[in-house]
Amino acid sequence: xxxxxxxxxxxxxxxxxxxxxxxxxxxxxxxxxxxxxxxxxxxxxxxxxxxxxxxxxxxxxxxxxxxxxxxxxxxxxxxxxxxxxxxxxxxxxxxxxxxxxxxxxxxxxxxxxxxxxxxxxxxxxxxxxxxxxxxxxxxxxxxxxxxxxxxxxxxxxxxxxxxxxxxxxxxxxxxxxxxxxxxxxxxxxxxxxxxxxxxxxxxxxxxxxxxxxxxxxxxxxxxxxxxxxxxxxxxxxxxxxxxxxxxxxxxxxxxxxxxxxxxxxxxxxxxxxxxxxxxxxxxxxxxxxxxxxxxxxxxxxxxxxxxxxxxxxxxxxxxxxxxxxxxx
Length: 328
What we know:
Elements (H helix, E strand, L loop, with lengths): L5 E3 L8 E2 L9 E4 L16 E4 L10 E3 L3 H12 L14 E2 L4 E2 L4 E2 L4 E2 L4 E2 L4 E2 L4 E2 L4 E2 L4 E2 L4 E2 L4 E2 L4 E2 L4 E4 L4 E3 L4 E3 L5 E4 L4 E2 L4 E3 L5 E4 L4 E2 L4 E2 L4 E2 L4 E2 L4 E2 L4 E2 L4 E2 L4 E2 L4 E2 L4 E2 L4 E2 L8 E3 L4 E2 H30 L1
Parallel strand pairs: 2-3, 3-4, 4-5, 6-9, 7-10, 8-11, 9-12, 10-13, 11-14, 12-15, 13-16, 14-17, 15-18, 16-21, 17-22, 18-23, 21-24, 22-25, 23-26, 24-27, 25-28, 26-29, 27-30, 28-31, 29-32, 30-33, 31-34, 32-35, 34-36
Antiparallel strand pairs: 1-5, 19-20, 36-37
């Protein structure tokens, strides 16, 4: 089976759409991947459900799988197949004569491809994309509209770069002086691995000297800023509005919640989870969840939060006692 699950109920029903459990109707298939939505199990009109436990089906039609979220993602690919592009180079694109263009590459109108660039086969270059000198983009990549890729950038296989991303611009490097802030030349480059996805309006700075690196299979959300000489490991998940300052090293399989921030020159160990809005001010060993500002192991942060709440409650009670004593 496509999603490797066990079918319960009527296996011959016709499904014509995928829907959220609370909005599903007859002919829809839905899923339950979060206990918060258990309340809709009784009222949903879905014709079938994808769940992790047959008890959740409650006499309805469904498929039981180990990971409902992964299963529904696969089902969505059946209803919404990957967009296909016309394999051609638009006459209104500007391409240097030295550019190497692989087989079945698409380049849309307004794209500018500078000297020495190498484009792998089956890669898509959207309208108004700029690719700077001596950059290399691997096969089967998708570079969507208005992306700016500065000189000498390397992008691996099957990577996806969404609209208005900027890769390889100067890092924020200045030496403060009395009359000016002297700009440090940013002479390095950015290397992006295979199967990386970068969300819209994200910015990744080139290294001052050396390389800024994004590891294979890492996924970066919209509006993320990654500073110069940062190294991101493999398989990381970085959500919106995260800021990672220069020369930080992030290990493999790390996860960062929205608006988390990391100071420069620290290391975040592999398998770390950084809670949303946390501030990392020193190196973390990894293999656990961190939260707060400064970020600390989440259990320690929860204890501090609890003490803070208790102090506020004691303060309120003390103020009430003082007011009562004065009135008496």
